[in-house]
Input
Amino acid sequence: MKKFFFVLFIILLLSVKFIIPASAVTNSPSSTQPSTTNSSASAPTITYLTALIQTISTEKNGTQDMTVRLLSGPDKGKKLKVNYDPQHVADLSMQTGETIILNKETDSSGHVQYYVNDKYRLPQIIIAIIAFFILIIAIAGWKGLGSIFGLIISLAVIFSYIIPQIIAGADALTVSMIGSVIILFLTTYVAHGISRQTTIALFSTLVSLLITYLIAIWVVQFTLLNGYGNSDATDLHFGTTSIISLKGILLGGIIISTLGALNDVTVTQAHTVFELANQNSNLTFKQLFARGFMIGREHAISIINTLVLAFAGSGLAILIFFLFNPQQWPYWVIINSESFSEEIIKAIGGTAGLLLAVPIVTLLAAAFCDPKVKQMFGKILK
Output
Protein backbone atom coordinates (compact mmCIF):
# COMPACT_ATOMS: atom_id res chain seq x y z
CA MET A 1 0.00 0.00 0.00
CA LYS A 2 2.80 2.40 0.92
CA LYS A 3 4.71 1.51 -2.24
CA PHE A 4 1.62 2.22 -4.31
CA PHE A 5 1.24 5.73 -2.91
CA PHE A 6 4.97 6.40 -3.26
CA VAL A 7 4.92 5.46 -6.95
CA LEU A 8 1.74 7.52 -7.45
CA PHE A 9 3.39 10.53 -5.83
CA ILE A 10 6.47 10.25 -8.09
CA ILE A 11 4.24 10.07 -11.15
CA LEU A 12 2.34 13.12 -9.91
CA LEU A 13 5.53 15.15 -9.51
CA LEU A 14 6.71 14.18 -12.97
CA SER A 15 3.36 15.08 -14.50
CA VAL A 16 3.52 18.58 -13.04
CA LYS A 17 6.44 19.37 -15.32
CA PHE A 18 4.52 18.47 -18.46
CA ILE A 19 0.98 19.53 -17.64
CA ILE A 20 1.72 23.24 -18.00
CA PRO A 21 1.70 24.40 -21.63
CA ALA A 22 5.07 25.51 -22.94
CA SER A 23 3.63 28.88 -23.93
CA ALA A 24 2.68 29.49 -20.31
CA VAL A 25 6.22 29.29 -18.99
CA THR A 26 8.19 30.68 -21.92
CA ASN A 27 9.23 34.29 -21.50
CA SER A 28 7.79 36.32 -24.33
CA PRO A 29 9.61 39.58 -25.06
CA SER A 30 6.34 41.29 -25.89
CA SER A 31 4.65 40.36 -22.63
CA THR A 32 7.35 39.94 -20.02
CA GLN A 33 10.15 42.33 -20.94
CA PRO A 34 9.64 45.90 -19.72
CA SER A 35 9.59 48.51 -22.45
CA THR A 36 12.24 51.19 -22.29
CA THR A 37 10.32 54.35 -23.00
CA ASN A 38 10.98 57.93 -22.01
CA SER A 39 8.23 57.80 -19.41
CA SER A 40 9.75 54.77 -17.68
CA ALA A 41 13.23 56.25 -17.87
CA SER A 42 12.08 59.42 -16.15
CA ALA A 43 10.15 57.59 -13.43
CA PRO A 44 11.62 58.21 -9.96
CA THR A 45 13.67 55.53 -8.23
CA ILE A 46 12.03 54.35 -5.00
CA THR A 47 13.85 52.83 -2.05
CA TYR A 48 12.26 51.82 1.25
CA LEU A 49 13.70 52.81 4.61
CA THR A 50 12.74 52.45 8.26
CA ALA A 51 12.64 55.48 10.53
CA LEU A 52 11.84 56.29 14.16
CA ILE A 53 9.33 59.06 14.92
CA GLN A 54 10.84 61.48 17.42
CA THR A 55 8.40 64.41 17.45
CA ILE A 56 4.93 65.06 16.05
CA SER A 57 2.91 68.25 15.69
CA THR A 58 -0.64 68.10 14.37
CA GLU A 59 -1.76 70.90 12.05
CA LYS A 60 -5.27 72.41 11.89
CA ASN A 61 -6.08 70.49 8.71
CA GLY A 62 -5.34 67.22 10.50
CA THR A 63 -1.97 66.46 8.93
CA GLN A 64 1.01 65.49 11.07
CA ASP A 65 4.42 67.15 10.78
CA MET A 66 6.95 64.65 12.06
CA THR A 67 10.65 64.65 12.82
CA VAL A 68 12.07 61.20 12.17
CA ARG A 69 15.48 59.55 12.43
CA LEU A 70 16.46 57.08 9.71
CA LEU A 71 17.20 53.57 10.99
CA SER A 72 18.39 52.08 7.71
CA GLY A 73 19.99 53.03 4.41
CA PRO A 74 23.18 54.95 3.62
CA ASP A 75 21.93 57.99 5.58
CA LYS A 76 21.24 55.99 8.73
CA GLY A 77 21.01 58.28 11.75
CA LYS A 78 20.01 61.31 9.68
CA LYS A 79 17.07 63.38 10.95
CA LEU A 80 14.51 64.83 8.57
CA LYS A 81 10.98 66.23 8.54
CA VAL A 82 8.06 64.58 6.77
CA ASN A 83 4.37 65.38 6.53
CA TYR A 84 1.69 62.72 6.85
CA ASP A 85 -2.10 62.88 6.34
CA PRO A 86 -4.09 60.28 8.37
CA GLN A 87 -7.29 61.28 6.53
CA HIS A 88 -8.93 62.25 9.86
CA VAL A 89 -8.91 58.57 10.92
CA ALA A 90 -7.66 58.12 14.47
CA ASP A 91 -6.39 54.56 13.87
CA LEU A 92 -4.20 55.80 11.00
CA SER A 93 -2.51 58.51 13.05
CA MET A 94 1.15 58.05 13.95
CA GLN A 95 2.52 58.18 17.49
CA THR A 96 5.85 59.36 18.88
CA GLY A 97 8.26 56.46 19.32
CA GLU A 98 6.74 54.34 16.54
CA THR A 99 8.85 52.94 13.74
CA ILE A 100 7.57 53.64 10.25
CA ILE A 101 8.45 52.83 6.63
CA LEU A 102 9.47 55.73 4.38
CA ASN A 103 9.50 55.86 0.59
CA LYS A 104 12.60 57.64 -0.68
CA GLU A 105 11.89 58.87 -4.21
CA THR A 106 14.82 60.10 -6.30
CA ASP A 107 14.04 61.61 -9.71
CA SER A 108 16.33 61.78 -12.74
CA SER A 109 17.74 65.15 -11.62
CA GLY A 110 18.74 63.77 -8.24
CA HIS A 111 15.98 65.52 -6.26
CA VAL A 112 14.93 63.44 -3.22
CA GLN A 113 11.55 63.36 -1.51
CA TYR A 114 10.36 61.26 1.42
CA TYR A 115 6.82 59.93 1.93
CA VAL A 116 5.30 57.95 4.77
CA ASN A 117 4.41 54.46 3.57
CA ASP A 118 3.11 52.57 6.62
CA LYS A 119 3.81 51.59 10.19
CA TYR A 120 6.65 49.08 10.55
CA ARG A 121 5.11 45.99 12.13
CA LEU A 122 7.34 43.17 10.87
CA PRO A 123 9.01 42.49 14.29
CA GLN A 124 5.59 42.14 15.94
CA ILE A 125 4.48 39.74 13.21
CA ILE A 126 7.57 37.58 13.76
CA ILE A 127 6.96 37.53 17.53
CA ALA A 128 3.32 36.51 16.95
CA ILE A 129 4.40 33.66 14.65
CA ILE A 130 6.96 32.39 17.17
CA ALA A 131 4.39 32.57 19.98
CA PHE A 132 1.94 30.64 17.79
CA PHE A 133 4.50 27.88 17.19
CA ILE A 134 5.27 27.70 20.92
CA LEU A 135 1.55 27.36 21.65
CA ILE A 136 1.26 24.48 19.16
CA ILE A 137 4.13 22.60 20.81
CA ALA A 138 2.79 23.35 24.31
CA ILE A 139 -0.64 21.90 23.46
CA ALA A 140 0.24 19.12 20.99
CA GLY A 141 3.69 18.23 22.34
CA TRP A 142 6.54 17.47 20.01
CA LYS A 143 4.05 16.00 17.56
CA GLY A 144 3.03 19.60 17.00
CA LEU A 145 6.28 19.99 15.09
CA GLY A 146 4.73 17.80 12.40
CA SER A 147 1.86 20.23 11.96
CA ILE A 148 4.32 23.16 11.85
CA PHE A 149 6.36 21.44 9.13
CA GLY A 150 3.11 20.67 7.31
CA LEU A 151 2.13 24.33 7.46
CA ILE A 152 5.51 25.39 6.09
CA ILE A 153 5.28 22.82 3.28
CA SER A 154 1.77 23.98 2.35
CA LEU A 155 2.87 27.61 2.12
CA ALA A 156 5.96 26.58 0.16
CA VAL A 157 3.84 24.73 -2.43
CA ILE A 158 1.44 27.67 -2.73
CA PHE A 159 4.15 30.31 -3.16
CA SER A 160 6.66 28.27 -5.16
CA TYR A 161 4.29 26.36 -7.44
CA ILE A 162 0.62 27.39 -7.46
CA ILE A 163 0.98 31.18 -7.63
CA PRO A 164 3.95 31.26 -10.08
CA GLN A 165 2.19 28.88 -12.46
CA ILE A 166 -1.01 30.96 -12.39
CA ILE A 167 0.99 34.13 -13.06
CA ALA A 168 2.73 32.33 -15.94
CA GLY A 169 -0.66 31.74 -17.54
CA ALA A 170 -1.49 28.17 -16.52
CA ASP A 171 -5.09 27.23 -15.76
CA ALA A 172 -5.69 28.33 -12.17
CA LEU A 173 -8.12 25.52 -11.35
CA THR A 174 -5.85 22.77 -12.68
CA VAL A 175 -2.81 24.19 -10.91
CA SER A 176 -4.75 24.58 -7.63
CA MET A 177 -5.95 20.99 -7.84
CA ILE A 178 -2.46 19.61 -8.53
CA GLY A 179 -0.97 21.79 -5.81
CA SER A 180 -3.61 20.61 -3.33
CA VAL A 181 -2.80 16.97 -4.08
CA ILE A 182 0.92 17.64 -3.62
CA ILE A 183 0.19 19.37 -0.30
CA LEU A 184 -1.89 16.38 0.80
CA PHE A 185 0.84 13.86 0.05
CA LEU A 186 3.60 15.93 1.62
CA THR A 187 1.81 17.11 4.76
CA THR A 188 -0.57 14.33 5.82
CA TYR A 189 2.13 11.83 6.72
CA VAL A 190 4.38 14.55 8.16
CA ALA A 191 1.65 15.80 10.49
CA HIS A 192 0.01 12.48 11.44
CA GLY A 193 2.65 9.85 10.85
CA ILE A 194 2.67 6.83 8.55
CA SER A 195 -0.14 4.45 9.45
CA ARG A 196 -3.05 2.61 7.88
CA GLN A 197 -5.47 5.12 9.34
CA THR A 198 -3.56 8.01 7.79
CA THR A 199 -3.37 6.23 4.42
CA ILE A 200 -7.13 5.67 4.39
CA ALA A 201 -7.69 9.30 5.42
CA LEU A 202 -5.38 10.47 2.62
CA PHE A 203 -7.14 8.37 -0.01
CA SER A 204 -10.55 9.56 1.25
CA THR A 205 -9.42 13.18 1.09
CA LEU A 206 -8.28 12.70 -2.50
CA VAL A 207 -11.66 11.27 -3.49
CA SER A 208 -13.53 14.02 -1.64
CA LEU A 209 -11.28 16.67 -3.18
CA LEU A 210 -12.08 15.36 -6.65
CA ILE A 211 -15.80 15.51 -5.84
CA THR A 212 -15.37 19.07 -4.55
CA TYR A 213 -13.53 19.90 -7.78
CA LEU A 214 -16.48 18.70 -9.88
CA ILE A 215 -19.06 20.35 -7.63
CA ALA A 216 -17.21 23.67 -7.74
CA ILE A 217 -17.07 23.62 -11.54
CA TRP A 218 -20.76 22.80 -11.83
CA VAL A 219 -22.04 25.28 -9.24
CA VAL A 220 -19.97 28.18 -10.63
CA GLN A 221 -21.14 27.45 -14.16
CA PHE A 222 -24.73 26.94 -13.02
CA THR A 223 -24.85 30.28 -11.17
CA LEU A 224 -23.21 32.19 -14.06
CA LEU A 225 -20.32 33.48 -11.95
CA ASN A 226 -17.20 34.77 -13.70
CA GLY A 227 -14.87 35.72 -10.81
CA TYR A 228 -15.14 39.50 -11.17
CA GLY A 229 -16.96 40.02 -7.87
CA ASN A 230 -13.79 40.74 -5.90
CA SER A 231 -12.14 44.12 -6.44
CA ASP A 232 -8.67 42.67 -5.83
CA ALA A 233 -9.26 40.01 -8.48
CA THR A 234 -10.53 42.64 -10.91
CA ASP A 235 -7.48 44.82 -10.30
CA LEU A 236 -5.30 41.76 -10.84
CA HIS A 237 -6.95 41.03 -14.18
CA PHE A 238 -6.91 44.53 -15.61
CA GLY A 239 -3.57 45.42 -14.03
CA THR A 240 -1.71 42.55 -15.71
CA THR A 241 -1.57 41.16 -19.21
CA SER A 242 -5.08 39.70 -18.67
CA ILE A 243 -3.86 36.10 -19.08
CA ILE A 244 -5.13 35.16 -15.62
CA SER A 245 -8.59 33.60 -15.56
CA LEU A 246 -10.57 35.03 -12.65
CA LYS A 247 -13.07 32.18 -12.86
CA GLY A 248 -10.18 29.76 -12.45
CA ILE A 249 -8.94 31.69 -9.42
CA LEU A 250 -12.45 31.55 -7.92
CA LEU A 251 -12.63 27.79 -8.43
CA GLY A 252 -9.06 27.25 -7.24
CA GLY A 253 -9.79 29.28 -4.11
CA ILE A 254 -12.69 26.98 -3.27
CA ILE A 255 -10.44 23.92 -3.62
CA ILE A 256 -7.57 25.29 -1.53
CA SER A 257 -9.78 26.75 1.21
CA THR A 258 -11.65 23.44 1.55
CA LEU A 259 -8.53 21.28 1.63
CA GLY A 260 -7.67 21.82 5.30
CA ALA A 261 -11.20 21.10 6.53
CA LEU A 262 -11.42 17.99 4.34
CA ASN A 263 -8.17 16.63 5.70
CA ASP A 264 -9.27 17.37 9.26
CA VAL A 265 -12.52 15.46 8.83
CA THR A 266 -11.01 12.43 7.10
CA VAL A 267 -8.06 12.02 9.50
CA THR A 268 -10.26 12.37 12.59
CA GLN A 269 -12.94 10.08 11.18
CA ALA A 270 -10.49 7.36 10.17
CA HIS A 271 -8.88 7.35 13.62
CA THR A 272 -12.34 7.28 15.23
CA VAL A 273 -13.41 4.15 13.32
CA PHE A 274 -10.11 2.41 14.03
CA GLU A 275 -10.44 3.21 17.72
CA LEU A 276 -13.97 1.78 17.77
CA ALA A 277 -12.65 -1.41 16.17
CA ASN A 278 -9.80 -1.63 18.69
CA GLN A 279 -12.20 -1.25 21.60
CA ASN A 280 -14.50 -3.99 20.31
CA SER A 281 -13.07 -6.38 17.72
CA ASN A 282 -16.45 -8.09 17.34
CA LEU A 283 -18.09 -5.09 15.66
CA THR A 284 -19.18 -5.86 12.10
CA PHE A 285 -18.74 -3.61 9.11
CA LYS A 286 -22.33 -2.40 9.39
CA GLN A 287 -21.98 -1.60 13.10
CA LEU A 288 -18.66 0.19 12.62
CA PHE A 289 -20.08 2.27 9.79
CA ALA A 290 -23.24 3.20 11.74
CA ARG A 291 -21.38 4.21 14.91
CA GLY A 292 -18.58 5.94 13.05
CA PHE A 293 -20.98 7.83 10.81
CA MET A 294 -22.94 9.05 13.85
CA ILE A 295 -19.77 10.56 15.31
CA GLY A 296 -18.57 11.89 11.97
CA ARG A 297 -21.86 13.58 11.25
CA GLU A 298 -21.54 15.70 14.40
CA HIS A 299 -17.96 16.56 13.54
CA ALA A 300 -18.92 17.49 9.98
CA ILE A 301 -21.69 19.80 11.20
CA SER A 302 -19.20 21.60 13.44
CA ILE A 303 -16.60 21.88 10.67
CA ILE A 304 -19.20 23.10 8.18
CA ASN A 305 -20.23 25.85 10.56
CA THR A 306 -16.57 26.80 10.94
CA LEU A 307 -16.06 26.80 7.17
CA VAL A 308 -19.14 28.93 6.51
CA LEU A 309 -18.08 31.38 9.20
CA ALA A 310 -14.62 31.56 7.62
CA PHE A 311 -16.15 32.48 4.26
CA ALA A 312 -18.46 34.97 5.98
CA GLY A 313 -15.53 36.51 7.81
CA SER A 314 -13.56 36.96 4.61
CA GLY A 315 -16.57 38.66 3.06
CA LEU A 316 -17.61 40.65 6.14
CA ALA A 317 -17.40 43.98 4.31
CA ILE A 318 -19.88 42.65 1.75
CA LEU A 319 -22.29 41.56 4.50
CA ILE A 320 -22.05 44.98 6.15
CA PHE A 321 -22.74 46.61 2.81
CA PHE A 322 -25.78 44.35 2.47
CA LEU A 323 -27.33 45.63 5.71
CA PHE A 324 -26.11 49.21 5.49
CA ASN A 325 -27.17 49.52 1.84
CA PRO A 326 -26.13 53.17 1.34
CA GLN A 327 -27.48 53.33 -2.21
CA GLN A 328 -30.83 51.81 -1.19
CA TRP A 329 -30.63 48.98 -3.70
CA PRO A 330 -33.30 46.27 -3.52
CA TYR A 331 -31.93 43.37 -1.50
CA TRP A 332 -32.55 40.92 -4.32
CA VAL A 333 -30.27 43.01 -6.52
CA ILE A 334 -27.51 42.88 -3.88
CA ILE A 335 -27.86 39.11 -3.43
CA ASN A 336 -27.79 38.70 -7.20
CA SER A 337 -24.56 40.71 -7.48
CA GLU A 338 -21.33 38.92 -8.36
CA SER A 339 -19.56 39.89 -5.13
CA PHE A 340 -22.34 38.64 -2.85
CA SER A 341 -23.09 35.52 -4.90
CA GLU A 342 -19.44 34.47 -4.85
CA GLU A 343 -19.43 34.20 -1.06
CA ILE A 344 -22.56 32.05 -1.11
CA ILE A 345 -21.19 29.72 -3.79
CA LYS A 346 -17.82 29.41 -2.05
CA ALA A 347 -19.58 28.19 1.08
CA ILE A 348 -21.84 25.79 -0.85
CA GLY A 349 -19.07 24.34 -3.00
CA GLY A 350 -16.74 23.74 -0.07
CA THR A 351 -19.26 22.33 2.38
CA ALA A 352 -20.82 19.97 -0.18
CA GLY A 353 -17.52 18.17 -0.62
CA LEU A 354 -17.01 18.19 3.13
CA LEU A 355 -20.35 16.49 3.75
CA LEU A 356 -19.59 13.74 1.26
CA ALA A 357 -16.18 13.12 2.83
CA VAL A 358 -17.77 11.73 6.01
CA PRO A 359 -19.52 8.68 4.50
CA ILE A 360 -16.57 8.05 2.15
CA VAL A 361 -13.90 7.81 4.85
CA THR A 362 -16.24 6.01 7.27
CA LEU A 363 -17.05 3.42 4.62
CA LEU A 364 -13.38 2.79 3.78
CA ALA A 365 -12.22 2.67 7.40
CA ALA A 366 -15.07 0.39 8.47
CA ALA A 367 -14.39 -1.93 5.54
CA PHE A 368 -10.72 -2.15 6.43
CA CYS A 369 -11.47 -2.90 10.09
CA ASP A 370 -14.10 -5.56 9.36
CA PRO A 371 -12.56 -9.01 10.02
CA LYS A 372 -14.17 -10.61 6.96
CA VAL A 373 -13.06 -7.84 4.64
CA LYS A 374 -9.54 -7.87 6.08
CA GLN A 375 -9.32 -11.60 5.53
CA MET A 376 -10.61 -11.30 1.96
CA PHE A 377 -8.45 -8.35 0.89
CA GLY A 378 -5.64 -8.69 3.41
CA LYS A 379 -2.89 -9.10 0.84
CA ILE A 380 -4.03 -6.07 -1.15
CA LEU A 381 -4.39 -3.80 1.88
CA LYS A 382 -1.01 -4.65 3.39
Q: What stands out?
A: Residues 1-40 have pLDDT under 50 and may be disordered.
